[in-house]
Amino acid sequence: MHVWAPIQRNSRFLCLLIEWLSDPIALPRGRRFASRGGAGRGQGRGQGRAERGGRVERGRAEGAVRRLHAAATLLRRTDEQRKEIYRHRRPRAEVTVDCDVNTDGLEEYVGRLAEGRARQAVVRQVQAVMEKAKRESPGRARLRIEYKYSQVGRALVEAGHVTGSRVYAIGVDPFKGWSKELRGAAMHDMGWECDDEAAYVTARVAMVPGGREVTGRFVEHREEIMAGVGDALFRAHGDYEARRQWVKRIFAGYDNDATLEGWAHSTQGNHEGRTMGGVKLWVGVTAASPGVGFEPREYWRAQKESTRWMWDHAGEELREYVKALRPRATVAASMGVWKSYVLQEAEAAGRSAKLEWAAREGARVLSLQHDGVILGRMGRDGGNSEEGEAIGDELTAAVSEAVGYRVRVKVAWCAEARAVLRVD
């Protein structure tokens, strides 16, 4: 369900499908890019996007081609190159959020910590944020956070290859490097955490036909599978939550093309030499269903194949462009980069849908986390369960419509310090 956008308007040169310039280029090389972009190659991409999009008007497609010619002409001038290079090096805010922090919760949390280096490190983390924040009311402080794309994400967006990407805080990020407990204390009783369920995996099921059955099975029975794999690999080592986190990291590695057994070298769990290749589960057993089999090895193989499928379907010019962004990367690494940013586009579409819904409903956005957002309280009752269910239903509908496939949005009140703001 990858959405092809018409060529973007916020960069004059990236629409020529060149690697980002760090220094001005000589005239012969500039003419090569100019002729390549302004001739049939650029025109073909403009028309191809119009055909794939289906709804792009002829006038917009022709305008994109005209823009290619204009950029090709400008690229021949060193002074214009320098202006664009300078502009691109400066961070550009894509989203701005006023993040409210529960200072009473932070003070209570820090006060419970024993004296020592760990407590001093937490105090420094909190002080770094509070120095930038402003007291809004008793027990509350507000920090304005501007979010930007990564350098590669910005390049891909400006070139029109993706419509959005993951965002990162410019400057102080109140949650980067914070423990789950500390993040929970900061957002305690502040609002609703709204997070897509298995965002990347769900997007991949919708996009890639190969491996859809085993990946869909993982999405449907995710918690049961993670519990089963945790028991199979780690037995009685660690509690349920610890085993769940270890297994979650393993499958996140598979999603990013890790080797089948590479997790064994980095996990904190004691696996006693057990391997994933031997794990076979039977899940989904109910009174009405006999259940289905699941083998992690098959899931791992499907994710590797999905990476290749996305790369093959990117097209030759886009593959050239991605490789040029990281010229020293291997082909496998370039394939992984492209897959990551395709899935980040789906994540960004879901995040934008949540922000648009919040604007329509008059809800304050307190924080962003990848595909998730935290919304301020929307009624006098705070964490009312019916209110949460209603918000979840509406956000599920809004996000699903935006991305073009079914996405379930989980909504939970930020009520417990240990259960808030999960970071995938």
Annotate the secondary structure layout:
Layout: H1 27-38, H2 40-53, H3 58-74, H4 78-89, E1 95-102, H5 103-112, H6 117-130, E2 134-137, E3 140-149, H7 151-158, E4 167-170, H8 180-187, E5 191-196, H9 199-207, H10 212-220, H11 222-234, H12 240-255, E6 281-283, E7 292-294, H13 296-312, H14 316-325, H15 331-361, E8 365-369, E9 372-376, H16 385-403, E10 409-413
Antiparallel strand pairs: 1-3, 2-3, 3-4, 5-9, 5-10, 6-7, 8-9
Taking all Cα atoms into account, the compactness measure Rg is 24 Å
Structural class: alpha+beta
Listing every helix as H and every strand as E from the N terminus to the C terminus, the arrangement reads HHHHEHHEEHEHEHHHHEEHHHEEHE
Report the end-to-end length measured between terminal Cα atoms.
Answer: 22 Å
Task: Report the β-strand fraction as a percent range.
Answer: 5-15%
Number of strands: 10
The helix content, as a percent range, equals: 40-55%
